[in-house]
Amino acid sequence: MVVCFCGELTLVKTSWIPLNPARRFYACPTKDSICGFIRWVDPPMCARIKIIIPGLLRNINTLEERCNGLVRSINMLQKQCNGLLSRNNMLEARCDALKDEGFKLKMYLCASWFMFVTVIFSIWSM
Ligand SMILES: [Zn+2]
Question: What residues contact 120, with CB distance under 8 A and at least 6 apart?
Fold first, then answer.
């Protein structure tokens, strides 16, 4: 247990500045405190790690931005897909209505031919 100048139990935080990337330290738990207590938990990083970790962090940030962009694209495509599905449903309903109308027209055509043939036969049979 490490206590700061205020007498509080310190928190373990992680530094992400380029000089000490991913290096943990004890800090005063009071936010905006003037205590200023800092003690390193981890030993100093070697120069190579100080270069590698910020590069990896940049790569992670770039990938997260790309991932967020892809998520936005997926959401946009999902909206477009939903719009197309509703339009498809509308067109299918219209197609069904047209099929019903076509069936009625066929029935009228058959009935009119039947009436025509009946009239012709009745005229011939006179
Ligand atoms: Zn403190």
Answer: none
Domain limits, the chain:
68-120
Mind listing the pLDDT tens digit for each residue in 64-116?
Answer: 999 999 999 999 999 999 999 999 999 999 999 999 999 999 999 999 999 99
Give the residues across from 11 on adjacent strands. Answer: 27
Tokens of 5: 């100048």
If you measure from the C-alpha of residue 2 to the centroid of ligand 1, how many angstroms do you get, rounded to a whole number? 11
Cα of 99 from ligand 1 centre, angstroms: 80
Residue 90: which residues within 8 A CB-CB, separation 6 or more? none
CA distance 112 to 109: 5
State in Å: Cα 24 to ligand 1 middle. 17
